[in-house]
Queue: 4 jobs
Job 1
Amino acid sequence: MHGLALTLVLATIMMTWTVAIHFFGIVFLLRLLSKHSHRVAHLSEVFRQILLLLFAVLGIVALHTAEIWSYALVYLQLGAISDFEPALYFSTVSFTTIGYGDIVLGPQWRILSAIEGANGLILFGWSTAFLISMMGKLRTLEHDWLEK
């Protein structure tokens, strides 16, 4: 398998891998939040929700970090980028769809980086939906708190 077909297969594998990281990571976060929320039960409801939300945000950041690093390691293994720091930088810029363009891949792998951007957009959307669902509860508590 050569050229575009190889790139598309690799992109599909990477998308599957990062979606799996995200899915299992969010399931793990939800289980941790559920299992350990009693540890902050002594705090007021508002502060408890803020701490749980902060934990969720840090967990989401850890998931995105693992996903970005996964792509960076692939770029290194392919020889598309020769050193880790530029590979990590390039992957971060691609995954977040910033796309500065100061580092570009050769023609064989540029489709992979474009698909990484689409992958990142989808996963950031998923993370946003997850955090919004958590914020819904906090907003209800905030509304109750402000009316007192």
Note: DSSP finds four helices and no strands in the chain.
Job 2
Amino acid sequence: MSDRTRLANRIKAADFALYELVLYLDAYPDDRRALAYFGKYKKMAEMLKAEYQQKYGPLTAFENTDPHHWQWVEGPWPWEKEAN
């Protein structure tokens, strides 16, 4: 497994935890422990995404940072082996 894939998997895991925490917090909005976990995983996801974008380019088309070049087309497409 490549470093790129490992990093992408870590991002997916952090995002999954965030989505689950959102659902939990919808039902238990005052749970301080869950709120702390949410803050922890939000920060982790942001850091992982920043690292990925620095090394490999944007994760989505909306994260294109170069006003003179469309970076989104540089990475492997989802159906290409390198993307998975």
Note: The chain has a mean pLDDT of 91.
Job 3
Amino acid sequence: MTTNNQKEGDSNLDIVRHLLESAEAQIRSAKQLLSENPEKNKKLKKLNLDQKASELNIISEGRIIEGVFDGEMMIGPDKKKYPVPANYASKSKFVAGDILKLTIENDGSFVYKQIRPIERKRLVGSLLFEDDQYKVLAGGKPYKVLLASVTYFKLAPGDTVTVAIPENEDSDWAAIESAAITD
């Protein structure tokens, strides 16, 4: 028979274990950052999503809208932001800068389709959790990633992942493509 004190003690131990694992993952990420040569990373221009979006179209009286994916949402040529379901963006591995087409159905539902993917490059990095956001430290930079991708792969801080980012432009977001899960 267990007592409430034992249950609390077990719960506290689990919390401490989780905190230690998270701290270890952050230390590994910091060491990786220190060991990388900053000069090998060429300077990329910042991805200008608003400019890309302004060059796109709204077709058929607002029923079909082309826009650019920003990592979480689609930005239309009218600068409005349209929500892209995180599980769909994660499954489709959308990368910031991808051009999407949004069709607004008669019942009001949104249907997205990728019409022009941005050129991508892949990096291997380590998952971390900071500032209430999952990120992947890859190529000396932390990239935000969708929570839906983290939960789909059942990832934890410290896990090694492969991410896709825009090849020729700088972005704050990456798409998780695959993962090596540690037990």
Note: The radius of gyration is 20 Å.
Job 4
Amino acid sequence: MVRFTEQQRDVPEENSIIPSIEHFQAEDGYQLAVRRWRAANPVSQVVCLHGIVSHGGWYVDSCEHLARSGSDVYFLDRRGSGLNMQARGDVDCFQTWISDVERFLGSLRSNLPRILLGISWGGKLGTAVAGRQPGLVDALGLLCPGLVARRGPRPWQRAFLYGVGSLPYLSQQKVSIPLRDPSLFTDTKGWKTYIGQDPLALRKITLRCALADCQLTHYAHACCDRIQCPLLLVLAGRDRIIANEAVHRLITGSGETNTTVIEYEQASHTLEFDPCVDRYQKDLASWIRGASRV
């Protein structure tokens, strides 16, 4: 395994799989950073999508575990987030996020199963991608997915975003992401310090990005019934960000019969930083192996 101190995640242990940093060109020319872990004899391709605050650097241990288990792993940093410094915290519309992922998935080898993993906010994007083009992915993993938030925008806030988010003279104004407290993500002291000090974490987004997020939520909910591939839903029992029961109803009521649900009852939102991480990684790798054989 790659082991990093809780304050620094760029010092790998000996014999670890070092991810390469590659770049993928989006349809509009934007260069998206991608961390890639190469498996010795890959049997599947795993594409990961991160949360609204996080980036691929938070999840290096799990990615290496999946690579050692036989998957080529790609972690795509969202435009304006993580390693992508251009147009920080901004997007023109939610369809651009979907296009970025669809285009990247379409660039992968066709002879290996394509598994899409959406973590937190990335679960919302992953649902939209899998529902919009059902044949594009062979399996979808939703890991504490941000489909229903415990504290989402209030009606007046949504009305405000729809009113001003598309106005040219206001759309670039930035607002703080309401997830500033690291304890929302984890109860582990060292990791809370890491999150609070992470220079690549996203803290602010533009008003039009906030509007795109609201629109993506609505679109992702509509896509749940269109998912046709094997689906994994992972929940953290002590999640302070995600409304677990509402998410569970949304996913299990979608009509997809090949759905696996795993809940870690004592875990917090970011499983990567939780004491259950070893069990979570083994469960995730096992599900991917099974989904790759379907």
Note: The domain at 20-293 is CATH 3.40.50.1820 (Rossmann fold).
